[in-house]
Amino acid sequence: MSDAQQPRPRRQRSLRESLGSIVLGFELIVVFLGALVLFGLNALPAWAALGGGALVVVLMIAAIGLMRNRAGVVLGWIVQALVVAAGFLQPAFFIVGAIFTAMWTYCMIVASRIDRNTTDRNNRTETR
Questions:
Q1: Measuring CA to CA, which residue among 71, 79, 70 is closest to residue 103?
Q2: Contacts for 3 with CB less than 8 Å, ≥ 6 apart
Q3: At 112, is the secondary structure helix, strand, or coil?
């Protein structure tokens, strides 16, 4: 194969990026279904329930796309706050928000620690 035909090597994703994307992906499905529940229960006008749900879903998609940067993590925290705040519209969202915020917090803390240890270990082996 010539140099022009060889595929570019894939970028190595961090654990924080991978786990954050997984949590937001599952949460995206729950938020979409939750928006339909708010619409079905007439808790909000249709434009507010579906439009607000769509806005949060778009923010989650943006956060997933930006997870390699700090902006994605910050946007993820904002989304967690919005889902918990939706509990004022439908109390079940307090439970959903608490569960996903706990998973998000755990993933961000533990994955960052593991990524840092892996980077330190790789740096030590390179200097030998």
A1: 79
A2: none
A3: helix
The Cβ-side half-sphere exposure at 77, using a 13 Å CA radius, reads: 8
Residues 57, 81, 91, CA angle at the centre, nearest 5°? 90
Contact present, 26 and 60 (Cβ < 8 Å):
no
In the chain, where the domains are located: 15-117
Beta strand spans in 7-81 (E): none
Q: Report the pLDDT value the prediction gives residue 128, as an integer from 0 to 100.
A: 62
Whole-number pLDDT of residue 11: 72
Torsion sign across C-alpha atoms 112, 114, 118, 123: positive
Cα of 46 vs its chain's centroid, Å: 26
CA distances from 84 to 17, 56, 104, 112, 117 (A): 22, 12, 13, 24, 32
Residue 95: strand, helix, or coil = helix
pLDDT, tens only, 6-15? 888 777 788 9
SS3 74: helix
pLDDT of residue 89 exceeding 60, the answer is yes
